[in-house]
Description:
The protein is α+β, with helices and mostly antiparallel strands. It is built from two helices and eight strands, in the order H-H-E-E-E-E-E-E-E-E.
Amino acid sequence: MIERRKLSVALATAALAAGLLTAAGPASAKPAGQAAAECGVRADGKLWCGNRVGAKGYEHRSYGSAVRGPLNSSFSWFACWGPGDPHGGGNNIWYWTQLDNGQWGNVPAVDVYTSVDPAPGLRQC
Length: 125
């Protein structure tokens, strides 16, 4: 009976530790999965990559500029990149794209699931 209880406690501790490790990742971590795996510049010269659903596109590379619209999809293309205001991604890279409402806007790199910014092979604009 004691051995069975020790085993139950050990299994519960391991499950709890695994759950904490999964949930305790950095807040700015970009999700893994199909979108992240496919992230890259294709033959058309555009960066095709996963992005945060609901990410906003701005008129300029600044949160202080007008919002032009959202990215409601979770996978988008980006025509080019440029430097702008720093953001929560730890850099100042912004990506230019056509937003889901048809407007063009700058999206901060923190909302684009690249492995490095700027994305290798994407032209600067």
